[in-house]
Amino acid sequence: MSREDPPAMRRIPLSLTSLALVCLLTACGGEQGPTEAATPTVSPSTEPSTASVLNATTPDPMPTSAKPAPQQKSASGTAPATTTTAPAPVVKAPLTCAHLAGAKLGSSKTPYNGYPDYLPLTEGQWSGEDGATVTLQKPCGIGDLDGDGADDAVGVVSVNSGGSGTFYTVAVWRNSGGLPVFRALTDLGDRTPVVSISVAGRRATVVWLTRSPSRGMAELDIRRTSVYKLSGSTLTEVSHSDAPYNP
Question: Which one of 19, 50, 171, 225 has the fewest beta carbons within 10 angstroms of its own beta carbon?
Fold first, then answer.
């Protein structure tokens, strides 16, 4: 009895047998060619990229609607302080008793001894056509009477018209740039000489001699101290005190 091939083997065509042999000798299980000839295939990396790591570790800033806080200015940014120099106080020119020797006495508003205009003193005197002689006496006081900060002058003058009587008058000159300008006067009477004049606290203190009502004109027995204040062009006695006087 002869051995026969299985039926399945008899059904395989010759062409398929040849194809299988070629496959075994090449890519289908045979030896592969040199690796240098193969085209490399790049597969996507499974490791995380640097950008993704940074994005994962650095959170995006959260949007905010709050306004930024104002920045505090430093002291160095402030404007430099300006130094203001106070104006120097106005210095009033002094008025002295010597200025009264060439002053004007009286005015049309406040006349002296009934004269309609002022009398110009020359070296402390004035002589009129009527025979009257006006003489500036020695007692004098310097001080601020009107409160303007400048020292005024208070003096005394006498007038003699050729008779026995000599009439004394206290006069005030205000300080106008160091020059005397007549301001006010007050009469003391006949033969009432002035001993002293002082000015303080916007008051003028005049010490002068007078007499009791029972005494004659030549009999001086009272030493009077009168205090005057200046109001406009008026010199008013505000008080006085008397003390006995014995020549």
Answer: 50
